[in-house]
Amino acid sequence: MLASLSDVTKRYGRTDGLSNVSIDFPAGQVVGVLGLNGSGKSTLLKLLAGLLFPSAGKVTVFDGPPRQNRAKLVYLGENDSLWTWMTPADAETFMKGLYDDFDVDRYRALLDSLAVPKRRTKAMSKGERGRLRLAMALARDAKLYLLDEPLAGIDLLSREKILQSIVREWHTDETILLSTHEVAEAEGLFERVLYLREGRLALDARAEELRDQGRSVVQAFREVLG
Amino acid sequence: MKGFKTLFWLEYRRSGAWAVALIGSLAFWAWALFQARAVDPVELSSVRTVLLVIAAAVGALVPALMIGRLRGETRGGQYQVLLLTPPSGAAHIAARYAFALGTAAVYFGILGGLAWWVVEMAGLTVDASTAAQLVLGLPLYVVGTTIAPILAWTVLLTVFVSAYRIAGPGWIPGTVMVVGTPFALRWLVEGIARAAYSLPGWPILGSLGISEGAYMTASPDGHEPEMIVDGIVHIPQEPLWIMLALTLVLLVIASRIWREVEA
Lengths: 226, 263
Description:
The complex is a heterodimer of chains A (226) and B (263). With 226 residues, chain A is α/β, with parallel strands linked by helices. Helix content of chain A is 34%, strand content 27%. In chain A, a hairpin with a 2-residue loop joins strand 8 and strand 9. By secondary structure, chain B is mainly alpha-helical. Chain B starts with a helix and ends with a helix.
């Protein structure tokens, strides 16, 4: 198993961000992490990335604690977290110097395909910054990708480019967890969907099973979380 | 240390402008020292000494502010990016600290040169060995005993505050450290005072070829000597070792916190 959560609870003071959740993630899946605001999507991804530690339960990534294995996973946070002075060339220096699995040629190809301008991030639009961050993330040769709201607040054309890049760069031995509110647009990507409600796992289903039942991912979203 | 070079480059890109501005400000201090006017030479020396002390304070403050910018990165999300990078917490702390300390060392080295210049302007002639002590020895002593621990304390403060940000308000650990520091400082000063001169002091002027009782003098315009250095000044070496040890402890704690922090 690539990653797993076993009876995991994460508390923020008196509030449960995630409550008693157990999930396994085998290799080679594109998993949609869906839910309303505050449902625990970001908490789940941060726990897997090692940015948060569970209040109870156990999180395992590559058979060990996530923080110890952080070099093997990719986490793309929901925050617009690049330094304002950074250009795509600076980002390349940063990634190349810190990650052994960073592929420079792949990064440059991604910059081209995602149409990322060569200026500082301060002078980029939110969509352009989002595309740059995605290029940085997908240019790594990791086995686990945790993408938290990569489509949030981004225009339609940029969203399409991002989704196309994810599809193009995905290899069958890699697992991608993608949280998004753009359920309809991303639906075609998902092999498996997790529906979270108020910190609990409301439904864990294969997208194909839903379709066999005559339901789309969006319909199930409305039924389970509506 | 894996990734140190890239992290040091990152520090340079983040705070390089601050470092250049700080070192560039020495031109202002040189100008101010040259422009200082007073009625009598003793008063003039006092004015110039005050200017040097203010310049030294600026040299401590700006590198500390460079380090303190981590707080903004916690809010901006860059801290998350750094936490997830493969290099250890020690590498992150070392890079951040090394850049700030290196900037301070360069600044204080040049400031030492300005101190030498002030001595020259006062009409005192110093030999090469004295000059070397003013430009290198004394600044390094000042950096080692004061700037190095101040910057390590700032690193620990910012990492400590950031560590608490996820679970609660960061001002709580910040207040604990700021309020607790004067007490810790008092114990430290008392300890240093007790330990001072247990080891032989470093003869600041003694190794300059100026024997005890001799005077360092001469007015370039041929007047009688105006200042006599009577005796050898010994600087205790214990404060330097104690403060360097404290610096190391603070940095190790900061590295440990970095490993445990949530974001």
